[in-house]
Every structure is written in C-alpha cells, then in structure tokens.
C-alpha cells in the first residue's frame, strides 16, 4: 500500500469520525430542542393553571362580597352564575333547586352559552335512576362534587351528551349547595375541553360551593333574626300595651340599696314621674294612711317573717291628683343564704273598677234578694249523689214557713213532696222531674207548674224552672232551679178564662142580635118606604086631579109633603146602607182599585160632564177588601168632591202611598173646603154643615165611609181649610 493510499484511507477515516461527531452533535441539539419544546409546553400549562387558579380565587373573593351585599337567594344565584362566566371563563353555568315533591332539579339561574340547553335536556332527577346518574344527581345524593371530564365518552352522560356536545361542552362539574347542612340544590359548570377540572381547581370550586352554602345559611339566619326581632318588638309592644289596658305595672325592689324601679304603667298607676323618691319610704308614702300600718305588719310578719310571696290588695293615694285607688300587688321575694330579704320582683294592678263592681254587685245582690221576696222567687239545688235538696229562705217564704220550722235548709225529695206538693200532683211532679234528670237531651232547661200546700193549710200554684248541668255523655251531674208562687196569676187566668167564655157567649148573642137587626133593617126599609111611596103618589095624583081648583098656598103645601116623603125615603135608604156598611159577610178578596175608580167615573159621568169636572186618577194598587164597600167608599168621597164645588169647575185627584203595613189613599178636590173645627163632626151621622137648599144629602155619607174604612182595618181623616179645597185620607190594611 502506498503512502498515498494510506493517507487517503486516513482521511476517509477522519471524515467518517468527523461525520459521526457531527451526527452526535445534531442528536444532542435535537434532544435539547425537544427538551426545550417540552419545557415550553409545561411552562404554558403551568401558566394556564395559574391563570385559572387566579380566576377562581377572584371568584371566591367576589362571592364573599356578594354574600355581604346581597339580601336574597335569587340575586346571589344569578350573580354567581355571571361571575363564573365573566371571571372563570367557563362555557356555561347554572344553579338548580330541588323540588321536594317531584324530586327534580329545577334551574333557577344560569349564564354563558346556554343556547336552550336547560330546556332541551331531560329533567334531572335526584333519585338513582338513569335521569339521575349524571354529575348533578350524584352530587345531590352524595353531598359532594361530581366531575365528568369527558362528556363524549362517559356512558352515564348519555341522556345529556348530544345536547352538550352540540353546544361545545366537553367537561362538567356539579357541586352540592347546602342550607343548614342539607343539600337543597346544585351548582353546575361546563368547560369547552376534556379533562378541564383538576384536583386544585376542584378544591377551589368546592370552596365556592361552600361559600354559597354559607351565604344561604347567612340569609336564613338574617331572616330568622329579623323575624325574631320583630316578634320580640311585637311582644314588648303587646306587653306594654297589655299592661296599659290591664292597668298592670311591674317593679323590682332592691332591699340592699333600699330603692325600687318601676315600669311606665306603674308610674301612671301611682301618679308619679321619674323624679319621685323610689325608696321604701317613698313607696309607703303612696299607700293609703289607713293601710300603712297593716302593710308594715304584713311585710314584716308574713312576707319577710315566714318568707311568703307578696300577694295583697290595698289602697293607694295617687301622688299627682290625691285620688284613692285600689291595687293588687303580687311579687316573688328572694333571700340570701342567711335568710335576709334581698329582692322583690312583681306586678301591681289597678283594681279600682273591679272593687267598685264588686260593691255594686253586692248591692245588686241585696236588691235581687229583696226583689225575689217581692216576686215570690225561691232558689234550690238538688245533690243527685246524696239525694238531698238545699233551699233558701226565699224558697221557704213561698210556702209561708221558715227553715227553723221545717228543720233546716236541707231535706230529702220524699220529705219535700210530703210537706209542699199537693197530694193529687205528687206522682206527676215526680215523673216529670225524673224524666228530665235522666234525659240525654242536651237541652238543660225544663218548666213545669203544679199545685202546692201552704203551711197555713191552703193550697196554691207554683211555677218551677229546672236547670241541669250535663257531662260529655249527656248525664246530669247537677240540678238546680227557681220556683215562683203563681197563685195570684193562676187565679187571674181562671178568672180570665171564665170571662173569655162569657165573652164568647156574648159574641154569639151579639151575632144573633146583629142578624136580627139586619133582617129588621131590611123589613123596616121595605115597610117604611111603601107607605111613603103611597103618600107621595096619592099627593101627586090629587094635585093632577084638582089642579085647577088649588091656590098657590095649597100647591106649596102639597110640594112640601111630596118633598118630605122623598127625603124620608132617601134617609131610610141611607140608614139601610149605614147598617150594611159595618157588616162583613164574606172573606176579603183581591180588589183592583183602578177598576173600582173606572166604575165610579162612569157612575158620575153625567155630573162630570155637566160641571166640567176634571178627574185625575193615578195608577192604584190591588188591595184586599170587600169590592162593593170599597166602591161605595170611593163613590161617596168622589161624589162629595163633585157636590161641594160651586165657584169653579171641580178638579179632583185620586192617588195613594205604599206604607209598611197599609195602603194610604187620598181624594183631593178644589172645593169650598171645611173649617178645621168641624173635622170630627163631619164623620158623625146626620151632622151637616150646610142646609138642604145649598147642598142636598142626609149627612150619612162620611159616616158610612168611616165604618167601611174601620172594617178594613184603617182610619180616615181630612185636611182642609175654608175656600182651600179638601183632601180626604184613608188607610186600608195590607
């Protein structure tokens, strides 16, 4: 081998070695580059973690601020969802509350890219069923966070996966929200990438969920505090007001210092202000002078001496107005270990009105006792257990005896029956009382009347009002009663009964007499009118036959005789109508007064035409009455209105008013009027205010009207004045 060849081989070897060194250097560079890339990637991830951590810390800080400044749950939930999106950069967050009835989680707040997700997904259950196997359901049941870092491949997310992936949710976490230690809702967060939630982030989110729970507890505590304060304020108010209304003041006496404190109500009771000397001497000064010594002895001997609670009624003299009042003091006394009194706490109530009422009650009781004696009332009780009656002095007075005479205030029912009940009534009374006592009916009152024996040997009548007290089963546990001597009343009733029988007999006799009188009136009317017709007819025939032979005086005499016969005939007819007017033969029927006035108008049609009269008839009611008599009533009144109007054409108005129990009609005219002094006279039979030449008639018409109105349960009167027209009023009972 030549030197040249050896050099060439050496160069080749060196070149190979150099290439190997260069290759090694490149490998080192690649390794360093790879290490640098890995380092950069780790640095980036670390930076992202730091940023995420800072964001979560910021959320925690903001949540704490929210709890301080927010007063209600809904606002807190809404703001926390907003913070989780704005600061935490999550895709979406929501908070749901569990419905206890349906066991479903109901969203109440959300923020971020929700895009209808909460309304599209199936309802999330808190039960261990497919709809409750997601993070939210698990977190609720287990009471701790539940993470799903791969929504796409987690089979338990199947019910919600499709809707979540559409909206870009790849990871989720659900954190329990608690109130008073009990899970009541879920805080859910969604991230756009898988494996988003690591241990550190989860720990910080647990802190946020804990802060939310703390906030809910804080709100609940505040709510309860406000309620408690309100209740306490109301109780204090009601206590003050009840003390004022009940006039009950409170006090606390310190016997070591010798002074006492008092409430506002007690100050008002004592009539003192804040500057009054509230020492023991000052309190004794308020007590009425006549009661001070008794109070001193009561305190020393009973309250302090035998350690008895303070309970005493006494008088005071108010400081501000010197008014004497009655008070009732009650208090609890405290003693030290040596038996010395240290404190007295209690109340003082103004009982002046009660004392006055008791005094009045005593006075009333005395009066009632006197009244019972006057009314012959006696009280008694029956002890059913021992079978013993207990009586009062007033009771014995009814029987004209005393407790001393009969042997005391108590006796057996048999003894009572033997002494005081009329023999023939004993069995009946015994049965009545026994039945009433044993009755299970809840009616606790029964009344009976029977005859009694007086101690004088006479007999009388008594009314007994029995009362019982019954237990829940309706059994009588107590019987008592009030007895009253009704002998005079019974005698009066018997007398009245006899008088009523006599009256009924007289009524029958009167009815028979009226029937006879009515028959007589008809007969008399016919028999009296027949001769008058003969007299009138023959006088007129006589006048025609000898007409040429009669002088004027004779003619006038004949005219007078005929006219007298005619007036006598009308008088007989009116008397017959008057006798009929007061008789009711048939039951009243419905009478349409409009139809009645229509008939009356036709009856006076000629007179209305001749006088130019105007008859104004208002709509009238339908009444109960006798149709014929009602027509005669209106006919007489309208006829008078037409008759007694000479100066101007008659103007007549008929109307009515609907009163509570009756109809009030009126007939008003513009006639000559009536002097008020004759108002009563015009309704008397045959009482005329004008002579027959001026106005015809017999003076019976208004008398008939009065009888018809009376028969219909009403009255009639007139309002008028001379030359002012007249208004006749009458009433008809409904």
Question: What is this entry, summarized?
Answer:
With 734 residues, the chain is an alpha+beta fold.
Question: How does this structure look, described?
Answer:
The protein has a 6-stranded antiparallel beta sheet with strand order 3-2-1-6-5-4, sandwiched between helices. The chain has a 6-stranded antiparallel beta sheet with strand order 14-13-12-17-16-15, sandwiched between helices. With 734 residues, the protein is of the alpha+beta class. It contains 20 helices and 24 strands. The longest helix is centred in the first third of the chain and has 67 residues, at 3-69. β15 (445-453) and β16 (459-470) form a beta hairpin. The model has no long low-confidence stretch (mean pLDDT 82). Helices cover 50% and strands 23% of the residues. α16 (552-581) runs parallel beside α20.
Features:
734 residues, 50% helix, extended, alpha+beta
Query: In total, how many beta strands?
Result: 24
Regarding quaternary structure, how should these chains be classified? single chain
* Beta-strand share of residues: 15-25%
Q: Could you give the distance between the termini?
A: 168 Å
Radius of gyration: 58 Å
How much helix, percentage-wise, in residues? 40-55%
Widest β-sheet, arrangement of strands: 3-2-1-6-5-4
Secondary structure tally, helices: 20
Chain-averaged pLDDT:
82
The largest β sheet comes out as: 6 strands, antiparallel
Structural class: alpha+beta
Overall, the morphology is extended
Unreliable stretches, pLDDT < 50, 5 or more residues? none
């Amino acid at each position: 081998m030549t030197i040249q060849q050896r050099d060439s081989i050496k160069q080749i070897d060196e070149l190979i070695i150099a290439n190997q060194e260069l290759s090694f250097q490149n490998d080192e560079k690649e390794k360093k580059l790879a290490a640098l890339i890995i380092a950069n990637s780790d640095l980036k991830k670390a930076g992202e973690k730091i940023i995420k951590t800072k964001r979560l810390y910021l959320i925690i800080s903001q949540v704490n601020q929210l709890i301080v400044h927010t007063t209600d749950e809904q606002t807190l939930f809404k703001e926390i969802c907003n913070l989780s999106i704005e600061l935490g950069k999550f895709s979406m967050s929501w908070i749901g509350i569990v419905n206890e009835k349906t066991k479903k989680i109901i969203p109440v707040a959300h923020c971020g890219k929700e895009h209808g997700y909460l309304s599209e997904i199936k309802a999330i259950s808190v039960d261990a069923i497919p709809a409750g196997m997601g993070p939210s359901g698990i977190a609720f049941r287990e009471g701790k966070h539940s993470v799903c870092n791969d929504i796409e491949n987690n089979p338990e997310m199947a019910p919600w996966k499709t809707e979540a992936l559409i909206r870009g949710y790849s990871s989720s976490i659900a954190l329990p929200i608690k109130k008073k230690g009990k899970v009541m809702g879920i805080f859910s967060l969604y991230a756009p990438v898988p494996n988003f939630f690591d241990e550190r982030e989860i720990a910080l989110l647990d802190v946020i969920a804990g802060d939310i729970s703390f906030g809910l507890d804080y709100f609940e505590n505040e709510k309860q505090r406000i309620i408690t304060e309100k209740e306490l304020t109301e109780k204090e108010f009601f206590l003050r007001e009840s003390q004022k209304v009940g006039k009950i003041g409170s006090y606390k006496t310190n016997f070591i210092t010798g002074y006492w404190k008092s409430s506002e109500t007690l100050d008002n009771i004592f009539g003192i202000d804040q500057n009054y000397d509230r020492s023991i001497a000052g309190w004794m000064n308020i007590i009425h002078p006549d009661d001070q010594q008794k109070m001193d002895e009561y305190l020393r001997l009973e309250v302090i001496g035998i350690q008895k609670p303070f309970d005493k009624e006494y008088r005071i003299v108010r400081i501000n107005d010197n008014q004497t009042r009655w008070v009732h003091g009650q208090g609890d006394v405290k003693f030290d270990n040596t038996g010395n009194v240290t404190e007295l706490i209690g109340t003082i109530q103004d009982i002046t009105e009660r004392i006055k009422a008791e005094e009045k009650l005593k006075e009333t009781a005395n009066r009632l006792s006197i009244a019972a004696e006057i009314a012959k009332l006696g009280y008694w009780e029956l002890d059913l257990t021992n079978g013993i009656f207990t009586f009062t002095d007033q009771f014995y007075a009814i029987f004209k005896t005393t407790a001393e005479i009969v042997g005391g205030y108590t006796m057996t029912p048999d003894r009572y029956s033997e002494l005081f009940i009329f023999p023939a009534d004993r069995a009946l009374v015994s049965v009545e009382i026994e039945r009433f006592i044993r009755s299970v009916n809840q009616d606790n009152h029964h009344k009976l009347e029977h005859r009694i024996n007086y101690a004088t040997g006479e007999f009388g009548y008594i009314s007994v009002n029995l009362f019982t007290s019954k237990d829940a089963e309706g059994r009588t546990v107590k019987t008592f009663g009030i007895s009253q001597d009704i002998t005079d009343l019974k005698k009066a009733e018997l007398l009245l009964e006899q008088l009523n029988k006599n009256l009924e007999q007289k009524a029958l006799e009167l009815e028979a007499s009226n029937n006879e009188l009515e028959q007589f009136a008809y007969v008399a009317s016919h028999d009296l009118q027949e001769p008058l017709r003969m007299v009138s007819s023959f006088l007129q025939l006589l006048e025609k036959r000898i007409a040429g032979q009669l002088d004027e005086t004779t003619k006038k005499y004949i005219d007078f005789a005929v006219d007298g016969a005619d007036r006598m005939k009308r008088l007989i007819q009116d008397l017959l109508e008057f006798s009929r007017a007061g008789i009711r033969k048939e039951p009243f029927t419905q009478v349409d007064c409009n139809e009645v006035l229509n008939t009356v108008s036709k009856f006076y049609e000629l007179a209305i035409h001749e006088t130019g009269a105007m008859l104004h008839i208002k709509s009238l009611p339908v009444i109960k009455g006798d149709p014929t008599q009602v027509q005669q009533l209106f006919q007489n009144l309208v006829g008078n209105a037409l008759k007694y109007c000479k100066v101007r054409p008659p103007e007549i108005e008929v109307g009515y008013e609907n009163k509570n129990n009756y109809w009030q009609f009126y007939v008003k005219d513009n006639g000559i009027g009536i002097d008020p002094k004759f108002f009563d006279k015009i309704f008397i039979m045959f009482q005329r205010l004008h002579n027959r030449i001026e106005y015809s008639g017999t003076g019976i018409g208004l008398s008939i009207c009065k009888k018809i109105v009376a028969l219909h349960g009403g009255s009639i009167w007139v309002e008028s004045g001379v030359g002012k027209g007249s208004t006749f009023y009458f009433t008809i009972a409904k």
